[in-house]
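Chapter review. Work through the record for TetR family transcriptional regulator before attempting the end-of-chapter questions.
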Amino acid sequence: MQSDTVGAGQTDDKQAAILMAAFDAFRTYGFRRASMEDIARRAGMSRASIYLKFKNKEAILSALVQRYFDDAVDKMTAALDAAGDPADALAGAFAVKVAAPFDALMTSPHGEELMDAKITVAADVAAAGEARIVEVLADWLARAEGKGIVSLEAYGSAEQTAATIYDALHGVVMSARDYDVLLADLDRLATLIGQGLRPARS
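Structure tokens for TetR family transcriptional regulator:
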């Protein structure tokens, strides 16, 4: 049976090898130029073996995007829960969202094409992944408000605030052209948002 998309928890060894090889091929040649033969060669498999797992390179890209969001959701949840101060929590969550292999994507000459392909080829997977991250942020905000760590009084519901935070995060990430600058910008964003979320002290 062919697999169109594969989540992180569902990836077997061959699928994982294919996804790693595909990421390398896409970084090297770009999504449009990379072929199933390029992916097979990097994975040390025949093209027939690749087609047993994925019907085409679009399915492989969708699986890569799915795996990225699965990993980001888990790591962002852990980072948010690990810190008490809202600025520290957001800084940790933002950092893991753009951790490896995101740095490798940004240093690729085809990074912009791959980001575009994520939106066009894997639109549904990307949209679902982004919605999951907003849910993670909303859950954290609701719990943090219950503990008195943040105040949402001026910002609306946890869901509305989470959506705004994600929009700001997404905007910074999508406009970035240098990885080190991106990390610094995300730290700054976390500080700005985190300070605004802290309850006023009388």
